[in-house]
Amino acid sequence: MEKIKEIFNxxxxxxxxxxxxxxxxxxxxxxxxxFDSLDLAELTVRIEAEYDVDIFEDGIVNTVGEILQKLEEx
Amino acid sequence: MxxxxxxxxxxxxxxxxDLLVELKRTERFSQYCQEVDFYIVFKQIILSLLLKREIVLxxxxxxxxxxxxxxxxxxxxxxxxxxxxxxxxxxxxxxLLRRLQKTSKDWRITLFTSGTTGLPKRISHSFESxxxxxxxxxxxxxxxxxxxxxxxxxxxxxxFFQALxxxxxxxxxxxxxxxQIFKSTSDYKITNISATPTxxxxxxxxxxxxxxxxxxxxxxxxxxxxxxNSLKQIFPNAKITNVYASTEAGTxxxxxxxxxxxxxxxxxxxxxxxxxxxxxxxxMGDFDSVSGDWYRTGDMVEIVSQKPVSFRFLSRKNEMINxxxxxxxPHEVEDAxxxxxxxxxxxxxxKSNSVLGNIIYSEIVKNDIHLDESSIRTQLQTKLQxxxxxxxxKFVEMISTTRTGKIKRx
Lengths: 74, 410
Hints:
The complex is a heterodimer. Chain A is an all-alpha fold. In chain A, 50% of the residues lie in helices and 0% in strands. Helix content of chain B is 24%, strand content 30%. By secondary structure, chain B is of the alpha/beta class. Chain B has 2 domains: 3-258, ANL, N-terminal domain (Rossmann fold); 321-395, GMP Synthetase, Chain A, domain 3. The A-B interface holds A 13-16, 30-31, 36-38, 40-42, 44-46, 54, 56-57, 59-60, 62 and B 175, 177-178, 198, 201-205, 230, 323-324, 351, 353-356, 359, 373-374, 377-378, 381, 386-387, 391-392.
Protein backbone atom coordinates (compact mmCIF):
# COMPACT_ATOMS: atom_id res chain seq x y z
CA MET A 1 0.00 0.00 0.00
CA GLU A 2 2.89 2.41 0.81
CA LYS A 3 4.41 1.90 -2.65
CA ILE A 4 1.03 2.53 -4.30
CA LYS A 5 0.62 5.72 -2.25
CA GLU A 6 4.08 6.84 -3.33
CA ILE A 7 3.13 6.32 -7.00
CA PHE A 8 -0.17 8.19 -6.45
CA ASN A 9 1.71 11.11 -4.97
CA UNK A 10 4.21 11.21 -7.85
CA UNK A 11 1.30 11.49 -10.29
CA UNK A 12 -0.50 14.09 -8.17
CA UNK A 13 2.61 16.25 -7.68
CA UNK A 14 3.31 16.11 -11.41
CA UNK A 15 0.02 17.91 -12.00
CA UNK A 16 0.50 20.36 -9.13
CA UNK A 17 -2.25 18.61 -7.15
CA UNK A 18 -2.32 18.05 -3.37
CA UNK A 19 -0.64 14.82 -2.16
CA UNK A 20 -2.74 12.22 -0.30
CA UNK A 21 -1.74 11.14 3.20
CA UNK A 22 -4.18 8.31 3.88
CA UNK A 23 -5.56 5.82 1.41
CA UNK A 24 -7.72 2.81 2.09
CA UNK A 25 -8.98 -0.02 -0.05
CA UNK A 26 -12.28 1.75 -0.59
CA UNK A 27 -10.72 5.08 -1.65
CA UNK A 28 -12.14 6.05 -5.06
CA UNK A 29 -9.43 6.97 -7.58
CA UNK A 30 -11.48 9.80 -9.05
CA UNK A 31 -13.52 11.12 -6.14
CA UNK A 32 -11.16 10.61 -3.16
CA UNK A 33 -7.71 10.74 -4.75
CA UNK A 34 -8.71 13.29 -7.40
CA PHE A 35 -7.39 11.58 -10.54
CA ASP A 36 -8.70 12.60 -13.96
CA SER A 37 -8.22 10.56 -17.14
CA LEU A 38 -4.75 12.02 -17.83
CA ASP A 39 -3.69 11.06 -14.30
CA LEU A 40 -5.14 7.56 -14.67
CA ALA A 41 -3.20 7.14 -17.92
CA GLU A 42 0.02 8.09 -16.14
CA LEU A 43 -0.86 5.93 -13.15
CA THR A 44 -1.26 2.82 -15.28
CA VAL A 45 2.17 3.40 -16.85
CA ARG A 46 3.90 3.94 -13.50
CA ILE A 47 2.27 0.88 -11.93
CA GLU A 48 3.13 -1.21 -14.98
CA ALA A 49 6.79 -0.08 -14.75
CA GLU A 50 6.86 -1.17 -11.09
CA TYR A 51 4.73 -4.35 -11.13
CA ASP A 52 4.52 -5.34 -14.81
CA VAL A 53 0.69 -5.28 -14.69
CA ASP A 54 -1.53 -3.05 -16.86
CA ILE A 55 -4.30 -2.38 -14.34
CA PHE A 56 -6.66 -0.89 -16.92
CA GLU A 57 -6.23 -3.59 -19.54
CA ASP A 58 -9.72 -5.04 -18.95
CA GLY A 59 -11.54 -1.76 -18.33
CA ILE A 60 -11.42 0.90 -15.72
CA VAL A 61 -10.70 0.16 -12.06
CA ASN A 62 -12.34 2.54 -9.63
CA THR A 63 -10.85 1.96 -6.20
CA VAL A 64 -7.51 1.33 -4.50
CA GLY A 65 -8.78 -2.14 -3.51
CA GLU A 66 -9.37 -3.00 -7.17
CA ILE A 67 -5.77 -2.05 -8.00
CA LEU A 68 -4.44 -4.25 -5.21
CA GLN A 69 -6.61 -7.09 -6.47
CA LYS A 70 -5.22 -6.73 -10.00
CA LEU A 71 -1.67 -6.83 -8.61
CA GLU A 72 -2.43 -9.93 -6.53
CA GLU A 73 -3.89 -11.73 -9.54
CA UNK A 74 -0.58 -11.39 -11.37
CA MET B 1 -38.84 19.40 -22.83
CA UNK B 2 -38.01 23.09 -22.50
CA UNK B 3 -34.41 22.59 -21.37
CA UNK B 4 -31.67 24.23 -23.42
CA UNK B 5 -28.65 23.20 -21.34
CA UNK B 6 -28.06 21.21 -18.17
CA UNK B 7 -24.92 20.43 -16.17
CA UNK B 8 -25.47 18.43 -12.98
CA UNK B 9 -21.89 18.96 -11.83
CA UNK B 10 -22.68 22.65 -11.37
CA UNK B 11 -26.41 22.37 -10.60
CA UNK B 12 -26.90 24.38 -13.77
CA UNK B 13 -30.21 24.26 -15.65
CA UNK B 14 -30.98 26.73 -18.44
CA UNK B 15 -34.37 26.67 -20.18
CA UNK B 16 -34.95 28.03 -23.68
CA UNK B 17 -36.91 30.86 -22.09
CA ASP B 18 -33.92 31.78 -19.90
CA LEU B 19 -31.73 31.77 -22.98
CA LEU B 20 -34.15 34.05 -24.87
CA VAL B 21 -34.20 36.54 -21.99
CA GLU B 22 -30.41 36.62 -21.88
CA LEU B 23 -30.11 37.01 -25.66
CA LYS B 24 -32.55 39.92 -25.68
CA ARG B 25 -30.73 41.63 -22.85
CA THR B 26 -27.31 41.38 -24.49
CA GLU B 27 -25.61 44.75 -24.73
CA ARG B 28 -22.10 43.87 -25.82
CA PHE B 29 -20.49 41.25 -28.04
CA SER B 30 -16.88 40.22 -28.46
CA GLN B 31 -15.91 37.95 -31.33
CA TYR B 32 -13.33 36.15 -29.20
CA CYS B 33 -14.73 33.56 -26.86
CA GLN B 34 -12.61 31.91 -24.17
CA GLU B 35 -14.92 30.53 -21.50
CA VAL B 36 -14.92 27.65 -19.03
CA ASP B 37 -18.73 27.56 -18.84
CA PHE B 38 -20.10 25.55 -21.79
CA TYR B 39 -23.40 27.43 -21.68
CA ILE B 40 -21.63 30.74 -22.23
CA VAL B 41 -19.72 29.32 -25.19
CA PHE B 42 -23.03 28.13 -26.71
CA LYS B 43 -24.73 31.45 -26.04
CA GLN B 44 -21.85 33.35 -27.65
CA ILE B 45 -22.08 31.19 -30.79
CA ILE B 46 -25.84 31.84 -31.00
CA LEU B 47 -25.23 35.57 -30.52
CA SER B 48 -22.66 35.61 -33.31
CA LEU B 49 -25.15 33.84 -35.63
CA LEU B 50 -27.91 36.32 -34.83
CA LEU B 51 -25.60 39.33 -35.13
CA LYS B 52 -23.98 37.96 -38.31
CA ARG B 53 -20.54 38.43 -36.77
CA GLU B 54 -17.58 36.06 -36.92
CA ILE B 55 -16.84 34.14 -33.73
CA VAL B 56 -13.41 32.86 -32.75
CA LEU B 57 -13.40 30.03 -30.22
CA UNK B 58 -10.39 29.65 -27.96
CA UNK B 59 -9.84 26.67 -25.67
CA UNK B 60 -10.51 27.61 -22.05
CA UNK B 61 -7.09 26.30 -21.09
CA UNK B 62 -5.04 28.15 -23.73
CA UNK B 63 -2.37 30.07 -21.83
CA UNK B 64 -1.92 33.82 -22.39
CA UNK B 65 1.29 32.97 -24.17
CA UNK B 66 -0.51 30.71 -26.62
CA UNK B 67 -3.27 33.26 -27.24
CA UNK B 68 -0.80 36.05 -27.92
CA UNK B 69 0.92 33.87 -30.47
CA UNK B 70 -2.34 32.72 -32.09
CA UNK B 71 -4.01 36.13 -32.29
CA UNK B 72 -0.90 38.32 -32.57
CA UNK B 73 -2.29 40.39 -29.71
CA UNK B 74 -3.53 39.93 -26.14
CA UNK B 75 -7.21 39.05 -25.72
CA UNK B 76 -7.75 42.17 -23.63
CA UNK B 77 -7.07 44.34 -26.71
CA UNK B 78 -9.81 42.74 -28.80
CA UNK B 79 -12.71 44.96 -29.62
CA UNK B 80 -16.17 44.71 -28.08
CA UNK B 81 -19.15 46.01 -30.03
CA UNK B 82 -22.34 47.57 -28.75
CA UNK B 83 -25.40 45.47 -29.69
CA UNK B 84 -28.00 46.91 -27.36
CA UNK B 85 -31.62 46.34 -28.55
CA UNK B 86 -30.50 44.50 -31.72
CA UNK B 87 -32.06 41.21 -30.58
CA UNK B 88 -35.23 42.50 -28.97
CA UNK B 89 -37.52 40.86 -31.55
CA UNK B 90 -36.61 37.27 -30.63
CA UNK B 91 -39.65 36.40 -28.57
CA UNK B 92 -39.87 32.65 -28.84
CA UNK B 93 -37.82 29.53 -29.40
CA UNK B 94 -39.53 29.10 -32.82
CA UNK B 95 -38.52 32.60 -33.94
CA LEU B 96 -34.98 31.97 -32.73
CA LEU B 97 -34.67 28.66 -34.61
CA ARG B 98 -36.11 30.19 -37.80
CA ARG B 99 -33.64 33.08 -37.58
CA LEU B 100 -30.73 30.69 -37.02
CA GLN B 101 -31.61 28.62 -40.08
CA LYS B 102 -31.39 31.76 -42.19
CA THR B 103 -27.87 32.57 -41.04
CA SER B 104 -26.00 34.81 -43.42
CA LYS B 105 -23.50 33.43 -45.92
CA ASP B 106 -20.87 35.78 -44.53
CA TRP B 107 -20.98 34.30 -41.03
CA ARG B 108 -17.81 32.49 -39.96
CA ILE B 109 -16.80 30.35 -37.01
CA THR B 110 -13.09 30.02 -36.37
CA LEU B 111 -11.34 27.45 -34.23
CA PHE B 112 -7.81 26.21 -33.78
CA THR B 113 -6.46 22.78 -34.49
CA SER B 114 -3.03 21.42 -33.61
CA GLY B 115 -0.88 22.22 -36.62
CA THR B 116 1.86 20.08 -38.08
CA THR B 117 4.62 22.66 -37.77
CA GLY B 118 4.29 24.09 -34.28
CA LEU B 119 1.44 26.46 -33.53
CA PRO B 120 -2.20 25.39 -33.73
CA LYS B 121 -3.72 26.29 -37.10
CA ARG B 122 -6.63 28.65 -37.53
CA ILE B 123 -9.58 27.09 -39.40
CA SER B 124 -12.74 28.93 -40.39
CA HIS B 125 -16.06 27.44 -41.42
CA SER B 126 -19.15 28.98 -42.95
CA PHE B 127 -22.62 28.11 -41.68
CA GLU B 128 -23.08 25.89 -44.72
CA SER B 129 -19.89 23.88 -44.19
CA UNK B 130 -20.30 23.47 -40.43
CA UNK B 131 -23.93 22.34 -40.73
CA UNK B 132 -23.54 20.18 -43.85
CA UNK B 133 -24.30 17.02 -41.91
CA UNK B 134 -26.86 18.41 -39.51
CA UNK B 135 -30.15 16.60 -39.99
CA UNK B 136 -33.20 18.67 -39.18
CA UNK B 137 -36.49 16.81 -39.09
CA UNK B 138 -39.44 15.85 -36.92
CA UNK B 139 -37.64 12.57 -36.24
CA UNK B 140 -35.05 14.53 -34.29
CA UNK B 141 -37.47 16.80 -32.44
CA UNK B 142 -37.44 14.67 -29.28
CA UNK B 143 -33.67 14.02 -29.21
CA UNK B 144 -31.78 14.79 -26.01
CA UNK B 145 -28.05 15.17 -26.53
CA UNK B 146 -25.35 14.08 -24.11
CA UNK B 147 -22.59 16.59 -24.75
CA UNK B 148 -19.30 14.74 -24.43
CA UNK B 149 -16.80 16.91 -26.30
CA UNK B 150 -14.88 20.06 -25.70
CA UNK B 151 -17.23 22.85 -26.92
CA UNK B 152 -14.42 24.73 -28.70
CA UNK B 153 -13.39 21.77 -30.86
CA UNK B 154 -14.83 20.61 -34.18
CA UNK B 155 -16.64 17.53 -32.88
CA UNK B 156 -18.27 19.52 -30.07
CA UNK B 157 -19.39 22.26 -32.47
CA UNK B 158 -21.03 19.71 -34.73
CA UNK B 159 -22.98 18.12 -31.87
CA PHE B 160 -23.96 21.60 -30.72
CA PHE B 161 -25.40 22.52 -34.14
CA GLN B 162 -27.22 19.21 -34.52
CA ALA B 163 -28.93 19.82 -31.17
CA LEU B 164 -29.44 23.56 -31.57
CA UNK B 165 -31.09 23.51 -34.99
CA UNK B 166 -33.49 20.79 -33.87
CA UNK B 167 -34.22 22.65 -30.64
CA UNK B 168 -32.92 19.73 -28.54
CA UNK B 169 -31.63 19.90 -24.95
CA UNK B 170 -27.87 19.62 -24.44
CA UNK B 171 -26.77 17.81 -21.29
CA UNK B 172 -23.14 18.13 -20.33
CA UNK B 173 -21.24 14.84 -19.94
CA UNK B 174 -17.73 16.03 -20.86
CA UNK B 175 -15.24 15.83 -17.96
CA UNK B 176 -17.85 14.58 -15.50
CA UNK B 177 -17.32 11.53 -13.30
CA UNK B 178 -18.68 8.19 -14.42
CA UNK B 179 -21.42 8.39 -11.73
CA GLN B 180 -22.45 11.87 -12.90
CA ILE B 181 -22.52 10.72 -16.54
CA PHE B 182 -24.89 7.85 -15.80
CA LYS B 183 -27.00 9.99 -13.49
CA SER B 184 -27.35 12.69 -16.17
CA THR B 185 -28.20 10.02 -18.75
CA SER B 186 -31.07 8.65 -16.69
CA ASP B 187 -32.26 11.96 -15.12
CA TYR B 188 -32.56 13.69 -18.51
CA LYS B 189 -33.34 10.54 -20.54
CA ILE B 190 -30.52 11.24 -22.97
CA THR B 191 -31.16 9.72 -26.41
CA ASN B 192 -27.95 10.55 -28.30
CA ILE B 193 -24.30 10.61 -27.28
CA SER B 194 -21.36 11.39 -29.50
CA ALA B 195 -17.93 10.89 -27.89
CA THR B 196 -14.41 9.57 -28.35
CA PRO B 197 -13.65 5.89 -27.71
CA THR B 198 -11.70 7.06 -24.63
CA UNK B 199 -14.85 8.62 -23.19
CA UNK B 200 -16.71 5.34 -23.65
CA UNK B 201 -13.81 3.25 -22.32
CA UNK B 202 -13.84 5.28 -19.11
CA UNK B 203 -17.48 4.30 -18.54
CA UNK B 204 -16.56 0.62 -18.28
CA UNK B 205 -17.23 -1.66 -16.50
CA UNK B 206 -20.82 -0.76 -15.62
CA UNK B 207 -23.77 -2.87 -14.57
CA UNK B 208 -26.59 -0.31 -14.93
CA UNK B 209 -28.63 -0.15 -18.14
CA UNK B 210 -29.76 2.98 -19.99
CA UNK B 211 -32.52 2.16 -22.45
CA UNK B 212 -33.28 5.83 -23.28
CA UNK B 213 -30.15 6.06 -25.45
CA UNK B 214 -31.01 5.39 -29.10
CA UNK B 215 -27.70 6.24 -30.72
CA UNK B 216 -24.04 6.26 -29.72
CA UNK B 217 -21.57 7.83 -32.09
CA UNK B 218 -17.84 7.59 -31.84
CA UNK B 219 -14.92 9.03 -33.71
CA UNK B 220 -11.44 10.41 -33.50
CA UNK B 221 -9.80 7.08 -32.70
CA UNK B 222 -10.15 3.43 -33.58
CA UNK B 223 -12.96 1.78 -31.66
CA UNK B 224 -12.23 -1.69 -30.29
CA UNK B 225 -14.68 -4.61 -30.37
CA UNK B 226 -14.46 -5.21 -26.62
CA UNK B 227 -15.65 -1.69 -25.84
CA UNK B 228 -18.44 -1.92 -28.44
CA ASN B 229 -19.72 -5.17 -26.90
CA SER B 230 -19.70 -3.75 -23.36
CA LEU B 231 -21.53 -0.63 -24.55
CA LYS B 232 -24.26 -2.78 -26.12
CA GLN B 233 -24.95 -4.20 -22.64
CA ILE B 234 -25.22 -0.75 -21.00
CA PHE B 235 -27.19 0.86 -23.83
CA PRO B 236 -29.35 -2.01 -25.13
CA ASN B 237 -31.40 0.17 -27.51
CA ALA B 238 -28.52 2.11 -29.01
CA LYS B 239 -27.29 1.87 -32.56
CA ILE B 240 -23.52 2.38 -32.52
CA THR B 241 -21.84 4.28 -35.36
CA ASN B 242 -18.31 5.46 -36.01
CA VAL B 243 -17.72 8.84 -37.67
CA TYR B 244 -14.75 10.20 -39.55
CA ALA B 245 -14.36 13.88 -38.87
CA SER B 246 -11.45 16.25 -38.97
CA THR B 247 -11.32 19.91 -38.04
CA GLU B 248 -10.49 20.69 -41.63
CA ALA B 249 -13.25 18.76 -43.33
CA GLY B 250 -15.95 18.22 -40.75
CA THR B 251 -17.92 14.98 -40.66
CA UNK B 252 -17.61 13.10 -43.92
CA UNK B 253 -17.95 9.41 -43.33
CA UNK B 254 -19.80 7.12 -41.02
CA UNK B 255 -19.63 3.40 -40.45
CA UNK B 256 -21.19 0.77 -38.26
CA UNK B 257 -17.94 -0.77 -37.05
CA UNK B 258 -14.37 -0.02 -38.05
CA UNK B 259 -15.16 -0.21 -41.80
CA UNK B 260 -16.03 3.05 -43.55
CA UNK B 261 -17.94 3.53 -46.80
CA UNK B 262 -17.85 6.44 -49.20
CA UNK B 263 -21.42 7.60 -49.66
CA UNK B 264 -22.61 7.69 -53.29
CA UNK B 265 -23.03 11.48 -53.21
CA UNK B 266 -19.32 11.87 -52.33
CA UNK B 267 -17.94 9.23 -54.64
CA UNK B 268 -16.28 11.81 -56.90
CA UNK B 269 -15.17 14.01 -53.99
CA UNK B 270 -13.33 11.51 -51.80
CA UNK B 271 -10.59 9.23 -53.09
CA UNK B 272 -7.78 7.04 -51.83
CA UNK B 273 -4.29 7.41 -53.29
CA UNK B 274 -1.24 5.51 -52.04
CA UNK B 275 -3.42 4.42 -49.11
CA UNK B 276 -4.02 8.05 -48.09
CA UNK B 277 -7.51 9.51 -47.82
CA UNK B 278 -7.88 12.55 -50.09
CA UNK B 279 -10.79 14.98 -50.02
CA UNK B 280 -11.97 17.47 -52.62
CA UNK B 281 -11.65 21.13 -51.63
CA UNK B 282 -15.41 21.66 -52.10
CA UNK B 283 -15.96 19.63 -48.89
CA MET B 284 -13.49 21.67 -46.86
CA GLY B 285 -13.69 24.72 -44.64
CA ASP B 286 -11.46 27.74 -45.42
CA PHE B 287 -8.10 26.33 -44.80
CA ASP B 288 -4.63 27.46 -45.77
CA SER B 289 -3.21 24.04 -46.69
CA VAL B 290 -5.57 23.27 -49.57
CA SER B 291 -3.46 23.64 -52.67
CA GLY B 292 -5.23 22.88 -55.90
CA ASP B 293 -8.48 20.95 -55.82
CA TRP B 294 -7.58 18.19 -53.40
CA TYR B 295 -6.61 18.04 -49.74
CA ARG B 296 -4.41 15.22 -48.47
CA THR B 297 -5.76 14.29 -45.04
CA GLY B 298 -2.68 12.46 -43.80
CA ASP B 299 -4.95 9.61 -42.69
CA MET B 300 -3.62 6.29 -43.91
CA VAL B 301 -6.28 3.70 -44.73
CA GLU B 302 -6.48 0.06 -45.80
CA ILE B 303 -9.02 -0.81 -48.50
CA VAL B 304 -11.29 -3.65 -47.36
CA SER B 305 -13.51 -4.00 -50.45
CA GLN B 306 -13.62 -2.39 -53.90
CA LYS B 307 -17.28 -2.24 -54.97
CA PRO B 308 -18.48 -0.35 -53.11
CA VAL B 309 -15.23 1.01 -51.74
CA SER B 310 -14.85 0.44 -48.01
CA PHE B 311 -11.78 0.95 -45.87
CA ARG B 312 -10.29 1.01 -42.38
CA PHE B 313 -8.12 3.66 -40.77
CA LEU B 314 -4.57 2.56 -40.06
CA SER B 315 -2.60 5.54 -38.82
CA ARG B 316 -1.71 9.15 -39.40
CA LYS B 317 0.83 9.85 -42.09
CA ASN B 318 2.15 12.76 -40.15
CA GLU B 319 3.27 12.48 -36.60
CA MET B 320 0.28 13.77 -34.67
CA ILE B 321 -0.29 11.86 -31.44
CA ASN B 322 -3.86 11.11 -30.44
CA UNK B 323 -4.26 11.40 -26.66
CA UNK B 324 -7.81 10.40 -25.82
CA UNK B 325 -9.16 12.13 -28.95
CA UNK B 326 -6.98 15.23 -28.60
CA UNK B 327 -4.34 15.68 -31.27
CA UNK B 328 -0.90 16.53 -29.98
CA UNK B 329 1.79 17.77 -32.30
CA PRO B 330 5.13 16.50 -30.96
CA HIS B 331 6.98 19.36 -32.68
CA GLU B 332 4.98 21.96 -30.77
CA VAL B 333 5.78 20.21 -27.46
CA GLU B 334 9.46 19.86 -28.36
CA ASP B 335 9.65 23.56 -29.26
CA ALA B 336 8.19 24.50 -25.88
CA UNK B 337 10.62 22.23 -24.01
CA UNK B 338 13.60 23.50 -26.00
CA UNK B 339 12.86 27.04 -24.84
CA UNK B 340 13.51 26.02 -21.22
CA UNK B 341 16.92 27.06 -19.87
CA UNK B 342 19.15 24.06 -19.27
CA UNK B 343 17.64 21.87 -22.03
CA UNK B 344 19.99 21.06 -24.86
CA UNK B 345 17.96 18.47 -26.75
CA UNK B 346 14.55 16.85 -26.55
CA UNK B 347 12.47 14.10 -28.08
CA UNK B 348 8.70 13.80 -27.66
CA UNK B 349 6.99 10.55 -28.57
CA UNK B 350 3.94 8.41 -27.92
CA LYS B 351 3.46 5.12 -26.11
CA SER B 352 0.24 3.19 -26.33
CA ASN B 353 -1.89 3.37 -23.22
CA SER B 354 -4.92 1.40 -22.06
CA VAL B 355 -6.73 4.51 -20.76
CA LEU B 356 -6.15 7.19 -23.39
CA GLY B 357 -5.01 5.23 -26.45
CA ASN B 358 -1.68 7.06 -26.33
CA ILE B 359 0.31 8.95 -23.75
CA ILE B 360 3.08 11.50 -24.29
CA TYR B 361 6.63 10.67 -23.23
CA SER B 362 9.71 12.82 -23.44
CA GLU B 363 13.46 12.29 -23.37
CA ILE B 364 15.52 15.33 -22.46
CA VAL B 365 19.25 15.97 -22.64
CA LYS B 366 20.12 18.65 -20.09
CA ASN B 367 23.17 20.85 -19.74
CA ASP B 368 22.29 22.11 -16.28
CA ILE B 369 22.48 19.44 -13.57
CA HIS B 370 20.00 21.34 -11.37
CA LEU B 371 17.18 21.15 -13.94
CA ASP B 372 14.59 18.67 -12.66
CA GLU B 373 11.28 17.18 -13.82
CA SER B 374 9.09 19.35 -11.64
CA SER B 375 10.61 22.65 -12.80
CA ILE B 376 10.17 21.56 -16.43
CA ARG B 377 6.52 20.74 -15.71
CA THR B 378 5.90 24.04 -13.96
CA GLN B 379 7.30 25.94 -16.93
CA LEU B 380 5.34 23.89 -19.47
CA GLN B 381 2.09 24.54 -17.62
CA THR B 382 2.33 28.23 -18.62
CA LYS B 383 2.97 27.37 -22.27
CA LEU B 384 0.95 24.29 -23.18
CA GLN B 385 -2.44 22.79 -22.57
CA UNK B 386 -2.39 20.04 -19.97
CA UNK B 387 -2.94 17.12 -22.38
CA UNK B 388 0.15 18.18 -24.39
CA UNK B 389 2.53 18.06 -21.43
CA UNK B 390 4.58 14.83 -21.34
CA UNK B 391 3.41 12.55 -18.55
CA UNK B 392 6.78 10.81 -18.28
CA UNK B 393 10.05 12.67 -18.61
CA LYS B 394 13.36 10.81 -18.78
CA PHE B 395 16.75 12.48 -18.67
CA VAL B 396 19.13 10.84 -21.17
CA GLU B 397 22.68 11.32 -22.49
CA MET B 398 21.61 11.25 -26.15
CA ILE B 399 18.35 11.42 -28.12
CA SER B 400 17.36 8.26 -30.02
CA THR B 401 17.01 8.77 -33.76
CA THR B 402 15.85 6.61 -36.65
CA ARG B 403 18.19 5.29 -39.31
CA THR B 404 17.53 8.39 -41.39
CA GLY B 405 18.46 10.65 -38.51
CA LYS B 406 14.90 11.66 -37.69
CA ILE B 407 13.61 11.69 -34.18
CA LYS B 408 11.90 8.41 -33.28
CA ARG B 409 8.23 8.87 -32.50
CA UNK B 410 7.46 5.51 -30.92
